[in-house]
Specification:
This protein is mainly α and about 90 residues long. The protein is built from three helices and no strands. About 5% of the residues are buried.
Length: about 90
């Protein structure tokens, strides 16, 4: 009987570790998707760099950047660079 109890404990612990690892992978994938989406938006906006951005567009982009910063997807330095680009395009 102690063998079965030990096996159950080990199996349960392994299950929870596996779930935690998968959760970390899911979070990494979600963050990568947000970065990819932001880069795609920036790539689309680059050909239009000659035209000034509206203040509503700039505010929406700044809000999105701040959200990514708060989530830890962007570093403060990355945020500052992108913020400067948006503000200069106005």
């Amino acid at each position: 009987m102690p063998f079965l109890l030990r096996a159950a404990i080990v199996g349960g612990a392994a299950y929870h570790v596996g779930k935690r690892v998968q959760g970390g992978r899911d979070q990494d994938a979600a963050q990568q998707q947000q970065i990819d989406d932001l880069q795609a938006q920036q790539a689309q906006a680059q050909p239009q760099a000659a035209a000034p951005a509206s203040s509503e567009d700039a505010m929406a982009k700044l809000t999105q950047l701040k959200s990514l910063l708060d989530q830890g997807v962007l570093t403060q330095a990355e945020f500052d660079i992108q913020k400067t680009k948006i503000l200069q395009s106005m």
